[in-house]
Design a protein that fits this description.
The protein has a six-stranded mixed beta sheet with strand order 2-3-1-4-5-6, sandwiched between helices. The protein has one domain: Pyruvate-ferredoxin Oxidoreductase, domain 3. The longest helix has 15 residues. The two termini are 15 Å apart. By secondary structure, the protein is of the alpha/beta class. Helix 3 crosses helix 6. The protein contains six helices and six strands.
Length: 184
Amino acid sequence: MERSIVFAGFGGQGILFAGHVLAEAAMDEGSQVIWIPSYGPEMRGGTAFCTVIIGDEPIGSPIVDHPDMAVAFNPPSLAKFGPTIVPGGVLVVNDSLVEASAGRDDIDEIRVRCTQLAREAGDDRLINVVALGALVGRTGIVRGESVREALRDIVGRKRPEALEIDLRAFDLGMAAVEGAAVPA
């Protein structure tokens, strides 16, 4: 099976980092993975996004017109990617910054107060890690422990002093969706 995920938001919100961590976690589990960052002039302040494709067989194409899942960190990202999610898909919305809804009843829209939870973890910039936790907690696309290992590897190597806060932010994101029904 192949699953596609789009992370989208303003440049500087850690969009590419969240996708990178998910891709590493999936590779650690033995999955085939494609991670495609998309940035340029929008890198700081405009909409940036990345696509992660996870499969159990070689992935035929890196092109995703209709992702299975999306994480929208800002209103323009919700407007751009909300309509493209496949029916039955999952949308995680940063409720701290996005008031609108996708307006669809055929997807599972999860609203998470990312900024508040990131602040609670110890760094309000970690909205990306909170949202990743919510996505993983809701969908089980990878195991939570695989993401924690990827964080230990990626963050621990470059900023070991920040690792515990990242792990806490991820766990708070997962806890934010506990008890929520997983889509069929």
